[in-house]
């Protein structure tokens, strides 16, 4: 049975530089072609044009950064170090590249894509959605994990509350057709359950691998699949959160904390 639609936005987290720390926001504007402003707007690339991320380089996990989106500045520091340096993300790109190259000990480059950014799923490029209850449940499966640690591992953009664990699985369909819903006044389509990579198995601050993380998660996910979840959408059970697509017509609208999520209103 479909739960009553009482989901509300509890958190909005933007990740300005792909693979690095996020920033919690009270609101997020929608930009063309249907993404959250500043989310994955920048990415670090190597000389071959490949992403420098937690999948390929463990030093990503020790790289701390803080953002000021109003001034488009970033402050970098090495985990455990007391010194930090701040840069403007547009006017000081050469200095950023030098600092990052020194940090990673190889030439790397910060690239910007103001429209669309660098999403993991180029078809479902909207914000990822998860519930607080889901993160709390996943944390309970893995001794030592906290809610905040689970949140940092799975890196969803929009967190909803007032719903049971895995309620967000109702935002993708059995057939693969988009599920229409709104957050506030913003029209969104739920596309598919998000396939996870090796990154959640590692501590987001240290990069230390959690033993049997993927095996434990996969077993628990399969064993606790709610009645409303379409199991045929899982070729494996290492999936969590929902990938979405925001309609181009929604450009300029805003998602706010406490906005209500309602299904079928497009």
UniProtKB/TrEMBL annotation:
<dbReference type="GO" id="GO:0030151">
    <property type="term" value="F:molybdenum ion binding"/>
</dbReference>
<dbReference type="GO" id="GO:0003824">
    <property type="term" value="F:catalytic activity"/>
</dbReference>
<dbReference type="Pfam" id="PF03476">
    <property type="entry name" value="MOSC_N"/>
</dbReference>
<dbReference type="Pfam" id="PF03473">
    <property type="entry name" value="MOSC"/>
</dbReference>
<feature type="domain" description="MOSC">
    <location>
        <begin position="98"/>
        <end position="264"/>
    </location>
</feature>
<dbReference type="InterPro" id="IPR005302">
    <property type="entry name" value="MoCF_Sase_C"/>
</dbReference>
<dbReference type="InterPro" id="IPR005303">
    <property type="entry name" value="MOCOS_middle"/>
</dbReference>
<dbReference type="GO" id="GO:0030170">
    <property type="term" value="F:pyridoxal phosphate binding"/>
</dbReference>
<protein>
    <submittedName>
        <fullName>Fe-S protein</fullName>
    </submittedName>
</protein>
């Amino acid at each position: 049975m479909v739960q009553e639609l009482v989901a509300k936005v509890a958190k909005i987290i933007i990740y300005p530089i792909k693979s690095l720390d996020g920033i919690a926001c009270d609101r997020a504007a929608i930009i063309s072609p249907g993404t959250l402003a500043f989310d994955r707007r920048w990415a670090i690339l190597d000389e071959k044009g490949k992403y420098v991320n937690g999948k390929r380089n463990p030093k990503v996990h020790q790289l701390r950064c803080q953002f000021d989106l109003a001034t488009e500045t970033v402050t970098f520091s090495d985990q455990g170090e007391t010194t930090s340096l701040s840069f403007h993300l547009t006017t000081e790109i050469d200095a950023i590249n030098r600092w990052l190259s020194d940090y990673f000990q190889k030439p790397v480059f910060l690239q910007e894509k103001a429209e669309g950014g660098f999403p993991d799923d180029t078809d479902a490029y909207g914000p990822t959605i998860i519930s607080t209850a889901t993160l709390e449940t996943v944390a309970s499966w893995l001794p030592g994990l906290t809610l905040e640690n689970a949140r940092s591992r799975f890196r969803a953009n929009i967190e909803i509350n007032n719903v049971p664990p895995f309620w967000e699985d109702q935002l993708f369909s059995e057939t693969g057709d988009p599920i229409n819903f709104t957050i506030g006044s913003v029209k969104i389509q739920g596309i598919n359950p998000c396939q996870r990579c090796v990154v959640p198995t590692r501590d987001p601050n240290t990069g230390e691998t959690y033993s049997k993380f993927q095996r434990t998660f996969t077993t628990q996910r399969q064993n606790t699949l709610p009645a409303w979840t379409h199991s045929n959408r899982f070729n494996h059970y290492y999936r969590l959160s929902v990938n979405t697509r925001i309609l181009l017509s929604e450009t300029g609208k805003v998602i706010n904390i406490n906005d209500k999520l309602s299904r079928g209103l497009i």
